[in-house]
C-alpha cells in the first residue's frame, strides 16, 4: 500500500471505561441475538442507539427473520459476515445482502420493510447498528444503499492488519458512507496475533470496540471475544490503540454525539413523546411507509 497513508499515530490512547457483555434476547419473529449496545447505553454512546450481534448455525434461531416492521427517525446499518438476508421495503425496493455486504438505510420519516434470511441451513452471522439522526433530519426522505463486500473500501497495513472502512475515514481511506452531523466511524478490523492497529478519534466523540473473533488489549485492558469495550472520553486522548493477543476481528465504532433528547418507542426514535404519538398515528393511518422514495 501507499506508505503515506500510514502516518497517523496516536499520542494519547483512550483507556477502557468498562467491558459490556450485552444481553441475549430475541427480536423480529423470534431471531435470537445478543444486544451489545442496550437501551441504557444510548446516552453514553450517543449518537448510537443499538448494536445487535446475531450469529448461529441453528436455522431455528434466525429463519423467520424480521417480517414487515416500521422505522422512523434514525439509520440502520446491517453488516452481514456470513449468510444471506433479503430486504424489501414499502417503496418496492429489494436487495440481497450477502457475506461481507452492508446495507445502509436512512429511515427518515418512515420505512416499512422486512429482513428475511434466504437460507435453510448453515451459519448466519452479522450485526445491525442503529445510528441516530439529528432532529432536523428525522423526517427526511428515506434512503438506502447496498454495498457488496467488494465495493467496501479497505486497506491492509504493513503488519497485515486488514481494515474495512464502512463509514468515516481511516488512514486516508474514505468509507462507503460519510455523515456530517454524527461523523460516524465504522471499521471492521482484522488483526493477526501480535499486530497493532491505531486509529485517530476526536476526543469529544463517543467510541467503542466490539471483539467478534479472538482477543485484544486496549491500553492494558484485555478485551475477550464477544465483549464490547466502552472507551473513556478524556480531553487529551486523540485515538485508540488496539493490540491483538490472538488473531482477532473487531468492530471499532465512534461518532459525534448529537446531545439531543432521545424518545424511543420500539422502532421509532424521535426527540419528544409527541413525535412518538405522531409516528404511531401515522403508522395506524397507513401514512408511514407511503412516502418512501
Ligand atoms: Fe428493520
Structure description:
Belongs to the pirin family. GO terms for molecular function: metal ion binding. The chain has a seven-stranded antiparallel sheet with strand order 1-22-19-24-17-14-13, with no helix packed on it. Strands 2-3-4-11-6-9-12 form a seven-stranded antiparallel sheet, with no helix packed on it. A four-stranded antiparallel sheet has the order 5-10-7-8, with no helix packed on it. The termini are far apart. The radius of gyration is 19 Å and the shape is globular. It has one helix at 273-284; strands spanning 16-20, 23-27, 31-37, 48-56, 66-71, 74-82, 85-89, 94-97, 102-106, 111-117, 124-132, 143-147, 154-156, 162-167, 169-170, 173-174, 185-191, 196-200, 206-213, 216-218, 221-223, 228-231, 239-244, 248-255, 263-265, 268-270. It has a single domain, classed as Jelly Rolls, CATH 2.60.120.10. The longest helix is centred in the last third of the chain and has 12 residues, at 273-284. The chain contains one helix and 26 strands. By secondary structure, it is mostly beta strands. Residues 1-5 have low confidence and may be disordered. Fe (iii) ion is lined by residues 66, 69, 71, 76, 113, 115.
Amino acid at each position: 500500500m501507499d506508505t503515506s497513508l500510514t502516518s497517523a499515530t496516536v499520542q494519547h490512547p483512550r483507556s477502557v471505561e468498562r467491558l459490556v457483555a450485552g444481553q441475549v434476547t430475541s427480536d423480529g419473529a423470534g431471531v435470537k441475538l445478543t444486544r451489545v449496545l442496550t437501551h441504557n447505553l444510548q446516552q453514553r454512546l450517543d449518537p448510537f442507539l443499538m448494536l445487535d450481534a446475531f450469529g448461529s448455525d441453528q436455522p431455528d434461531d434466525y429463519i423467520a427473520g424480521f417480517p414487515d416492521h416500521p422505522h422512523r427517525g434514525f439509520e440502520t446499518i446491517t453488516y452481514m459476515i456470513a449468510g444471506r438476508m433479503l430486504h424489501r421495503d414499502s417503496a418496492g425496493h429489494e436487495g440481497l445482502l450477502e457475506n461481507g455486504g452492508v446495507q445502509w438505510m436512512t429511515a427518515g420519516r418512515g420505512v416499512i420493510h422486512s429482513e428475511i434470511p434466504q437460507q435453510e441451513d448453515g451459519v448466519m452471522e452479522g450485526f445491525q447498528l442503529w445510528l441516530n439522526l439529528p432532529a432536523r433530519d428525522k423526517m427526511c426522505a428515506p434512503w438506502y444503499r447496498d454495498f457488496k463486500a467488494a465495493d467496501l473500501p479497505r486497506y491492509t497495513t504493513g503488519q497485515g492488519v486488514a481494515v474495512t472502512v464502512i463509514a468515516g475515514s481511516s488512514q486516508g481511506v474514505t468509507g462507503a458512507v460519510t455523515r456530517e452531523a454524527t461523523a460516524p466511524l465504522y471499521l471492521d478490523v482484522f488483526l493477526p496475533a501480535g499486530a497493532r492497529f491505531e486509529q485517530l478519534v476526536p476526543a469529544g466523540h463517543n467510541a467503542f470496540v466490539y471483539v467478534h473473533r479472538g482477543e485484544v488489549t486496549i491500553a492494558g485492558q484485555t478485551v475477550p471475544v464477544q465483549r464490547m469495550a466502552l472507551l473513556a472520553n478524556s480531553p487529551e486522548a486523540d485515538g485508540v490503540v488496539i493490540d491483538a493477543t490472538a488473531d482477532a476481528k473487531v468492530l471499532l465504532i465512534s461518532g459525534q454525539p448529537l446531545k439531543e433528547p432521545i424518545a424511543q418507542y420500539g422502532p421509532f426514535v424521535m426527540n419528544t413523546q409527541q413525535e412518538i404519538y405522531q409516528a404511531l398515528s401515522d403508522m395506524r393511518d397507513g401514512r408511514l411507509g407511503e412516502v418512501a422514495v
